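Can't paste images in this forum, so I'm doing it all in text. The chain is below; anyone willing to post the predicted structure tokens underneath?
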Amino acid sequence: MSTPPDPPAPRGRRSDVEARVPGVLRVAAAYAWRILVVGVVVQAAFSVLGQFHRVAVAVFLGLVVTAVLRPVADLLSRAVPRSLAVAVALVGGIVLVLGVLALVGGAVAGERTGLGREFVSGTERIERLLEEPPFRLDPGALNDLQSRIGRLLSNHRSTVISTALSGASRLLEVLTVLVLALFCSIFFTHSGDRQWRWFCEQLPARSRKRVAAAGGAAWRTFTGYTHGILLVAATNAVLVGAALFALRVPLAVPLALLEFFAAFVPLIGSPIALAVAAVVALASKGPLTAALVVVLIVVIGQIEGHLLHPVVMSWAVRLHPVVVALSVVGGAVAAGVVGAVVAVPLVAVVWSVHQALRIRTGDTDFG
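Text version of the structure:
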């Protein structure tokens, strides 16, 4: 006579297998598959965005220009029509950028004659320095290196030409992105608030206030970061330019402009730009001036890290330095220089949106 089967376990009781699995492992497994799903979704999103990275970069640059020009346009619109205020702000910004580029070009052209002689003598000075203790480099090694570079260029002339042509096509792409960014910034500056309200009105009624609050927090953080990093970059450029002028290092204006743009990559941009300035000082003025530029790197790094960033950026971006460093490195790995520039404001915006939505969670309007 067969024994009747065991009755099914109650719905709330765990099976023997589940009971033998430690609770920590069950929780870790639950988190693990959810993290994998999120990772797959993020990877798919970045893959799609990667196909339209030029458009994404153009929109980002358009938002940067809008963050800079909109306060000026709002101020001018009190006295003139909005369209005229936007046009005046935009044309003034373009004239300012072109004027700085013309100043850099004039500085390079003015120093070109003496710069060649200084760099030739500086190169010879560096060679003699490498031949002396403690380096003791063989003099024939440097001459052999120069001849090898010459042979390499002559043997791969077609490759060099194709690379130059590829650079020309890249230049065309860059100009296209800049034009699209300028086009977007015009409409963002003129009526960006109306465009955002229209977008929110297309959403379900129960989601509109949350999306509006998140968008407001994101824009405040982005504009605060943009204004702060511009102030930091301009301060660094002025300090570098004044110091290089005082040390009579050639190309002081272009190097100061390089420092300005490098400051948009937090933590690592300024040291790289100042390292270039140190190389120029070594080649043109000798080891003593190069050592003073290295001291300048340390001083400006301390001013930027302990004064400018905490004071200027704290009201806009509340991120730990470790988060900033990881964001910059991760952005550089994912998308090169563009990723390194975009990473910190993107992380700051995401964090501000999270904070805004968490505060709104207790609002009775959203249940």
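The mean pLDDT is 78. The CA atoms of residues 127 and 142 lie 8 Å apart.
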